[in-house]
Design a protein that fits this description.
The structure is a homotrimer.
Chain A: E1 5-7, H1 9-16, E2 21-24, H2 27-32, H3 37-51, E3 55-62, E4 65-68, H4 72-80, E5 85-87, H5 89-97, E6 102-104, H6 106-116, E7 120-122, H7 133-136, H8 141-148, E8 152-155, H9 164-173, E9 178-181, E10 200-202, H10 205-217, E11 224-227, H11 238-254, H12 262-273, H13 277-302
Chain lengths: ~300, ~300, ~300
């Protein structure tokens, strides 16, 4: 397995010296934002993690290898290349075998982080049960990954287009702890709140780290959600954004937009209906997650 | 992992000497019955297991440790304390890390039993797919635990408020054997029957033990259901109890009772609509499960 | 675990010498076809695999053992015995413990193949989510087996009576790669096409083998689907067969045919409504899968 892993020097030394490391995904770079904002975002996220005393490890697949940490040049490749594969569990081996360029999703990044021994991962929002998922059975592989892979995911909840209630039911059924970081409400990505609670609120990075360490010391396989609401200054109103999404879903249906085209359509709508504010909110929550992930990774190593 | 386990002397010696041990849960003590009936029940269950030549190990979480076997004083704490946490898989590590008092559910007890090397566990009824679960996706973590954790659960079926049919489908999909102990019908907790069959009927504890041993010797991970109907003298009529539950569900809906309040509301209704007989039935089935678990645990060790 | 495995000399030598071996199921023999066609089919499948330079290992449970490879006499027993058990995960240990005769399903064969170290398995079609499964939750244990057991299954898609769309959603959620062999469309058993795509098309056995090897070298547990459409000369028309199945389902409903009786009823209907052509198609696809499995097993060993 080691033959597939390729580390930057910085990340390798950090792992060897048991210094805090935070994993970062590459799908948000290749598929989440346009160039050059994606590259700026990717750099800024790394910078924020360094400010917390941790080492960022942006993860991607390239040249038949899993890159744990990307160089400037590699980051640029992910930010500018066309047709980068989105790599979830089912795609992971194939994209390596074919030596293709693969941007890792939440599930894909968790797999790579566990292989590399990285315990904390910062992202925007996880995948989950899609709206009407009780009919379509469209459920992100991020959830089954959380059920089995030993990585904590710092996020602002599930992606806004998803069904939060059923996503939380799925996580409960599969024994995945949902920790609210300084909140007792499960956040809804663009907004700080939702109609749903968390399993328990924890306010200190040290206490989060202890809970995670205890879980893995006990041999309880699987990840954890650290739900971290978007900072107030950048938060959107829950009801407003929910209405915007409902409107976008209806419009998608009326226009016979189905399958993989629904999500980008809705996100575009949300962006235009919020006068672009949703993009700012998205960036703000990613930065905030990076900061909190840095704190938790640091606390985890000192533990 | 060993550092989290704390055994009573009796249980530790039994495990070291490969004597039969039966695990027991603590949620039924802290959340299932009022004081002092809960304490009486807890003691009587232990007594019944001893009468079968096995050692009872009531399991709970306390002072940052997993207690495998509880002292008189500890049993009393679980029976009388307010706000004891219900500990399923997602809560397990956190309640230990926070040194809180945690009563283990079926899932939580299975985790602890496996860590301690106990193969047989007696309870009342398992959790499962909730009624209307095909819409809500409310599915107990007991089912995913049965899919992965190597403990046999002796029970009188699933808790009566659940959807038996979909619970059995879920177990089949996840490869969990459903053994009918002296029955070819899956029991429905208060009643000895239901509309559903079992995977196979086994009438001898030795044959159950052999089937379990073969499963685990083969490396087939996961638990098994030993479905043991409530004794006839205490059994309620299937159609009568089903009508009572349907009535209670309708009343809950009409009164906008939702979420975690539904189950206690229905159970209260069932109790009052059966003039308290449901409580007697519940005790009778727990005692019977303890007896059968003792027999199976003994047969398993002699195997 | 080794004590439960019993190999034919041919299979044992092939495994020791790292020669290609292809696993075959026995349910298709005991429950899929009438005698003597089932025996002819079983022999011809083995012959086809040998023609590809691989060794066939038909798998069944007998005398408390898992037979890896069946003798002429044993094959005959499976082809002619009444009341042979269908062995999926939940039945596996019990049928061994009881020393009963057990024909392995896709799930059961995968378990046995993994225990024996066989990586490639040829069958007709896998089980999956049943039509209306979003309501009934009737989902084959083949899917959870694919999520966890390291065997590649060469098939012509899912059995035709199933819900292809939700079956593919389930596989995606659980991270199972769905590889189209020389096709970018997921085949629908009797027909070469469906409304659904595959995760990726691969045209060379060597490339399939490399993808599988990479997956397992990475420690990514679970199987893979190699979807191999029925040869054109034997293929039925997608819309025609779909209409026939819909008609059969309606007739089953009108006649109150439910549960385990639905599938044989529909298959009988399909057979009579296609003037028996569906049986020819079924045989043709099984032979074709055996051929492709032989090629992939050979490529896997040379890798
Ligand atoms: Mn999906
Ligand atoms: Mn629930
Ligand atoms: Mn089924």
């Amino acid at each position: 397995m080691e033959q597939f892993l390729s580390y930057t020097k910085e990340v390798q030394e950090a792992l060897q010296n048991k210094q805090p490391v935070v994993a970062l995904e590459s799908t948000i770079i290749s598929h989440g934002l346009p160039y050059p904002q994606n590259l700026e975002m990717a750099r800024k996220v790394e910078e924020i993690i360094r400010e917390q005393g941790a080492v960022p490890a942006t993860i991607g697949i390239m040249d038949g290898e899993i890159k744990i940490g990307l160089t400037e040049e590699e980051l640029n490749d992910f930010a500018t290349s066309e047709n980068v594969h989105k790599v979830s569990r089912r795609d992971f081996a194939h994209v390596i075998a074919q030596r293709e360029l693969g941007a890792t999703t939440v599930a894909g990044t968790m797999i790579a982080a566990e292989l590399a021994g990285i315990k904390v991962f910062a992202t925007g929002g996880i995948g989950g049960v899609h709206r009407e998922g009780e009919i379509t059975w469209d459920v992100s592989a991020d959830l089954t990954e959380l059920a089995q892979t030993n990585v904590a995911v710092v996020c602002a909840g599930a992606k806004s287009i998803l069904d939060i209630g059923r996503t939380l039911e799925y996580l409960e059924t599969h024994g995945v702890p949902v920790i609210g970081y300084k909140t007792n409400t499960f956040p809804s990505f663009y907004s700080r709140v939702s109609e749903f609670g968390v399993d328990y609120q924890i306010d200190q990075p040290e206490a989060v780290a202890k809970s995670l360490k205890t879980k893995w010391d006990l041999g309880l396989e699987g990840g954890a959600i650290i739900a971290n609401p978007v900072p107030e200054h950048a938060a959107l109103d829950y009801n407003k954004i929910e209405n915007v999404i409902q409107e976008a879903i209806t419009e998608a249906k009326n226009n016979n937009i189905t399958g993989k085209e629904v999500t980008p359509f809705i996100l575009d709508k949300v962006k235009s209906l919020t006068d672009g504010q949703s993009l700012e909110t998205n960036l703000a929550l990613v930065y905030h997650n990076a900061e909190v992930a840095g704190l938790i990774a640091s606390a985890y190593q000192e533990n």
